[in-house]
Amino acid sequence: MNRLQTTINGVVFKNPIIAASGTFGFGAEYNELYDVSILGGISSKGLTLQPREGNSGIRVWETASGMMNSVGLQNPGVKKFISDELPRMKEFGNVVLANLGGATVEDYLEGITLLNDSDVDFIELNISCPNVKAGGMALGIKNEIAYEAVKECKSICKKPLMVKLSPNAENIIEMAQACEKAGADSLSLVNTFKGLAIDIKKRKPVFDNIYAGVSGAAIKPIALRMVHEVCKNVSIPVIGMGGIYTVEDVVEFIMAGASAVQIGTVNFSNPLAGKELVKGLWSYFEREGILGVEEIRGMI
Questions:
Q1: What is the tens place of the pLDDT at every residue in 99-141?
Q2: What is the pLDDT of residue 136?
């Protein structure tokens, strides 16, 4: 019996540990360190319709109990992902989530059309990307904008549609409910928080884009609170993330209502984290006599 098995939108994950987008590439580099097939799933590097070189200047900056990043969605584009990266990802035997970003709803729709005919298991819609038609405001900030975007995407999506929420939304509960109403099959949260770092010697921001995403252990209590709030107010599955480093962290997110978790920043400080968390979670379940994820999910 697989104590760790969890099912989301009819798709069976061998365990609830998923490598988060933007922190695991497409899995190949980490597979040189350990057999990544042990993971429940892998969320791809953030994809855009066209290839992107990413942001200029410094891209990663260490901060207390975490990190900041301004990578800028460097990626090969959806078509190259499907032809070059996806076949290798499928060989690992994990559930594959294609994380899709865009500057306009039209970008998302074209990307989904391509991914519909691929072997990805989920499309994870990243609505934290700046929307050029909304003055650069992320689709995931305003409820009504997110609702319309998700509704359009869902209308053509042939895969389970998971929507990745930004913690910078005006109201995370209302945002989650708007996405559910628009047809999202599941939700993942939280993405990075918006932060600022200043180089006091150069007397200017560290990042060329001024602001950057904050992640890591420091955000965990806030992320956990948001996941708990959302799980209490929607009826679709939720994947929790934000500062997960230990087995205890994983269990907390499941107890808060998450059906699975994604691990991100920890992969940089401990490249073996995925393997260690899967094995550690199995040991915890066995030690505590827990027969399955659903036994403790949402008990808080």
A1: 999 988 999 999 999 999 999 999 999 998 655 455 445 788 8
A2: 47
Buried b (16+ CB within 10 A) or exposed e, 274-290: bbbbbebbeebbeeeeb
Q: Are 230 and 189 in contact (CB under 8 A)?
A: yes
Euclidean distance between CA atoms 92 and 90, whole angstroms: 5
Instruction: Name the DSSP class of 134.
Output: G
Structure tokens, 202 = 């150069």
H helices present in the chain, as ranges: 28-31, 78-80, 86-91, 105-116, 143-156, 172-182, 220-231, 247-255, 266-269, 273-288, 293-296
CB atoms within 10 A of CB 255: 15
Distance CA 167, CA 122 (A): 22
Alpha-carbon span 61 to 20, nearest angstrom: 19
Catalytic positions: 129
Handedness of CA 210, 216, 222, 228 (dihedral sign): positive
* pLDDT grade for 257, boundaries at 50, 70 and 90: very high
Residue type, 251: V
Give percent of the chain with pLDDT exceeding 90.
93
193 or 1: whose pLDDT is higher?
193
pTM (two decimals): 0.96
Contacts of 197 (CB under 8 A, 6+ apart): 61, 63, 68, 205, 206, 207, 212
